[in-house]
Amino acid sequence: MASEAPIDPVPDSATSALTVPPERADEIFLEGPRSRFTEFFTLLRVMRDFLRGFQTLHFVAPCVTVFGSARVKPDDPHYELARKMGAAIARLGFTVMTGGGPGIMEAANRGAKEVGGRSVGCNIELPFEQVSNAYLDLCGRLHYFFVRKALLIKYSYAFVVMPGGAGTLDELFEALTLIQNGKIKNFPIVIMGTDYWKELIDFIQKMAQRAMIGPEDSSLIFATDSVEEAIAHIRSKAIEPFGLKRVARMRRPFPWLGERGLSGKGPAIC
Q1: Is residue 265 part of a domain?
Q2: For 48-65, what is the mean pLDDT?
């Protein structure tokens, strides 16, 4: 019986760590221990991802990040809800940040752009789905999922969770866990599309009832389908507690350091 042809491994060399295709960066990183030099150059690549993210996003003003599926089509009611929410977030003075792709992400960025607000994306190199949408003022393209997730959280004062799949669940519970453990401030998490998330909301309540999370942890999530209620919640939990206020001009980036800004966009809150 003929044996199956072996799969060619990625060469274990410092050069391959720097030249591996972007869409395979996470795969190679998570394969397991490799040579010391390869691991060192992988570390440099991770640092490069973070540096590019910092240069792109440091001057975009306080953000509200919108999570949601890349597979939602423009004729889906949740697309329109995300579009309205993006517009409302922008009118509030925040920069709308998303993963930069299609679907819900496009809808939120589109809503912000349509009202003259700030719209940024933090994209990831994937072999499918993740093409940058056309409604971004700035977009950082990254190689590593964990870098992207950290940046989506780092610059945000609130999180809006629209219908999505495994990636959206990952982002929701990453933010929730960081807040629960005091790693980030008690920023509001708003779940929208309650018909879609009903079982998840019930399950979170069940975790609280079974003492798997604290009784106060379930209050970290606010569920609504009303844009007005969501904005009021963000205003009361993000703007007022942290003393954010509108300013006419934001800090200027230094292009010679590779920094990028949103020139001509204002006023905003800070």
Answers
A1: yes
A2: 90
- Kindly report the backbone phi and psi dihedral angles of residue 74, in degrees, each rounded to the nearest multiple of 5, phi listed first: -60, -20
Residue 231 within a domain: yes
Residue 78 lies inside a defined structural domain of this protein:
yes
Indicate the average pLDDT of the chain.
Answer: 87
Look at the block and give the residue holding tokens 């003492």. 211
Which CATH number belongs to the domain containing residue 63 in this structure? 3.40.50.450
Rounded to whole angstroms, how far apart are CA atoms 95 and 265? 10
Instruction: State which residues form the domain around 238.
Output: 51-269
- For residues 134 and 29, which has the higher predicted lDDT (pLDDT)? 134
Pairing mode of beta strands 246-247, 268-269: antiparallel
Does a structural domain hold residue 230?
yes
**How would you class 146 by CB atoms within 10 Å of its CB: exposed for 0-12, middle for 13-18, buried for 19 or more?**
middle
Under 8 Å between Cβ of 10 and 20: yes
Angle between helices 77-92 and 104-114 (to 10 degrees): 40
**How large is the C-alpha radius of gyration of the chain?**
20
Contact 110, 117 (CB under 8 A): no
Q: What is the dihedral of CA 233, 239, 243, 246, to 10 degrees?
A: -150
Nearest to 175 by CA among 199, 156, 194, 197: 156
pLDDT in tens, 67-77: 999 999 999 99
CA distance 88 to 110: 12
Per-residue model confidence as pLDDT tens digits over 164-184: 999 999 999 999 999 999 999
Cα–Cα dist 247/269, whole Å: 6
Domain count, the chain: 1
Q: Are 64 and 157 in contact (CB under 8 A)?
A: yes
